[in-house]
Specification:
The protein is an alpha+beta fold. The protein contains two helices and ten strands.
Length: 207
């Protein structure tokens, strides 16, 4: 009797173990990682203000004064006691009371210049009309780009007066021309004809 009970217990254990090892028809022991909840898309960027647009372009906020490459003091280079190659810009005025500021001189030749500071063209006129250092900027075959004081811009109804200095006699005036630009880095257009000395340019002629 004891041996019969022992046999029945062993047989029942085998059946139970087999049942436990066999997966049921409704059970999936493999985890599906492809059908989970769709989370936040990390590549989506909120459409905000572009941080690079800190200095928006303002049309005609800059004036460019370009030297005439055929000016006589560029080839050969100015050999005078005071070397002022190219046109010599004392000042420029927009309408009445707006002057050059933030000037930059670029693209100059290899000629020696005693007047290569762009800031000397800024502000009110201060040259005497003779060759002298510290009162004007010699273009030296290059480009002088400046803003207008108080952030002014040029329109078709405005007037621009440029003062360019000649030689010691006041007769050896060299040529330059102007353009209107959107920025100190460029965007220049609306070119004038070459001029010399003190000249007024009408905005209506540039538009």
């Amino acid at each position: 009797m004891k041996n019969m009970m022992k046999s029945l217990v062993m047989a029942f254990g085998v059946v139970a173990l087999a049942a436990a090892c066999e997966p049921g028809a409704g059970s999936d022991t493999t985890t599906d990682n492809t059908t989970g909840t769709d989370g936040v898309d990390g590549t989506t960027v909120t459409d905000g203000v572009d941080s690079t647009d800190v200095d928006p372009v303002i049309e005609n906020s800059v004036i460019e004064l370009e030297d005439d490459p055929n000016n006589s003091t560029l080839s050969p280079c100015d050999t005078g006691t005071i070397k002022s190659p190219g046109a010599d810009i004392d000042s420029a005025e927009l309408n009445s009371g707006e002057y050059l500021t933030s000037c930059q001189l670029t693209g100059t030749t290899s000629c020696e210049s005693d007047s290569d500071s762009a800031s000397q063209a800024e502000g009110t006129p201060d040259a005497t009309g003779k060759e002298e250092t510290g009162t004007y900027t010699s273009l030296n075959g290059g480009l002088l780009r400046c803003r207008w004081s108080n952030g002014s811009v040029v329109t078709s109804s405005d007037n621009i007066t440029v003062i360019e200095i000649g030689g010691t006699s006041g007769t050896n005036v060299e040529q330059y021309r102007i353009r209107l630009c959107d920025a100190l880095a460029g965007g220049c257009q609306r070119e004038s004809a070459y001029a010399s000395g003190e000249v007024s340019f009408s905005g209506s002629d540039l538009f």
